[in-house]
Known about the structure:
246 residues, alpha/beta, Alpha/beta knot, 6-stranded parallel β-sheet, CATH 2.40.240.20
Amino acid sequence: MANQYFVKQVYTTxxxxxxxxxKHHIFNVMRARNGERLELVFSDGKIALAEVVNAxxxxxxxxxxxxxxxxxxxxVTIAVGFPKGDKLDxxxxxxxxxxxxxxxxxxxxxxVVKWNQxxxxxxxxxxxxxAQGAAEQSKRNLIPEIKLFEKFTEFFEKLHDFDKVIVxxxxxxxxxxxxxxxxxxxQRPTKIIVIFGPxxxxxxxxxxxxxxxGAELVGLGSRILRAETAPLYALSAISxxxxxxx
Length: 246
């Protein structure tokens, strides 16, 4: 099976050349050679099987357009309170593989990690590279958006952009709430955001703010999941409900 790469140019039926950083990655890192065929995802969303015409010049020709959609039936943004260590790297990679359309992070009240704007920018750049690699490996049609917010209020103001806001809340799980998540997903909203707290959880004040703005507080099963596990559970459940149960 041909390797897949994203290129920052529109689809064309004529021979074309690609530039760095894609050129460096394909030919210097992955060592593509003349005659090798690759799947390229163009910036306008089209996918094509393309052949290397001249590796030195990074020249390709399109063999055929590929009609494929590997995206979830609904847009799912995963939002997490900043976790410790490299957990956000792990979440980004696996959430991309599982179909998230965007991965957001924000400083929640009980987040141990606090990053300034300079640090956030560097982290965003790193996570964007992780997301691109995971999207190529898993044959995605798009690379998820990566957004890290410096302030919780900036993140909170974006929630009105979604059809449904879901908050994975540990206390709801402890009280035996087991049905709301499935009920929301079964409605097939076009664009949802699923919010997860950091290791310390979501504070009562944050929970009340979410509730006051129409968010659904849901449990994710009877077991308590780690901060880096819960988003993957939710995405897997969405896939099972909407893709494996057609």
